[in-house]
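Risk mitigation, structural track. In case the binding assays with geranylgeranyl diphosphate fail to produce interpretable data, a predicted complex structure has been prepared as a fallback.
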Amino acid sequence: MNFSQQLQDYQKAVESALDEYLSVRDFPQREGLDAMRYSLLGGGKRVRAVLVLAFAGAFGVDARQAMPFAAALEMVHAYSLIHDDLPCMDDDDFRRGKPSCHRQFSEATAVLAGDGLLTHAFLTLLREGIAVGVPAEKVVAAGTLLAQRAGLDGMLGGQIIDLSIEGKTVERSLHQEMCELKTGALIRAACVIGSVLGNASKEQMNIVDKYAQKIGLSFQIIDDILDCVGQQELLGKPIGSDAAQHKTTYVTLYGLEQAKELSRQLTAQALDCLDQLSLADDFLYDLTRMLLERRF
Ligand code: GRG
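Fallback model:
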């Protein structure tokens, strides 16, 4: 199967699993459920979920067993986007080509929808993970990793640094730490959880973690570049929002060309990590190159 077919198959499978895991049957409270489903379903590249599935597959575990974990990653990601868009954070009106959650519903509902998705991520991982036969110790290891990387030592910690440096001149090193946490931590969780579910050795997991740190940082650099030179119709949100909010980004710190060069270097280092894993097929190589070349 070629790369784009395999990617589409993964994305379709993720979409239908998310629909199933957040079904109407589970939630009688209609407004909250509608807001959660609005933000979770029918949008997004599903990069984090695909990374879970691809690394699990690379280490011998099929998509059926890895799906609850892939879905949990997307739920945590969707929660972070809802909260990030709120007026008290970035105050963004559009996300994934449609009004952001608080614009479509209300601010209070959006806060609760984010909370709901964060909670539902862990319910999904625990309940569905056990239901598909993943050994309990692997479920616990994956859940612990996700909680660590989403929390104070990860994405949330990055967001806190982000808020603390608003309007200030930032050192490159602190800015990098913020990006590694805010954006990189969930990507790192996705890759490592995939290999934890599979039968990766400790040494292989360390290589996967190194790979993930490279692509996680590169992912943020590309995001910054696209906010400057991307296309609104592809991105699904207005470009130039970082500049409008006077945000420090890789483009403001390094300039456009050097930012592009940095993301190329990180991608090359990530590909070197893959070389050390002796993978059976090219999917992760193609995915890594696609992330560098992405236009949305
Ligand atoms: C808990 C109050 C509270 C807030 C949490 C942690 C947080 C808010 C926000 C940080 C998450 C964030 C917006 C990081 C930026 C990462 C980024 C590049 C997001 C876009 O990811 P894509 O391109 O989006 O994968 P799609 O739409 O494809 O899923």
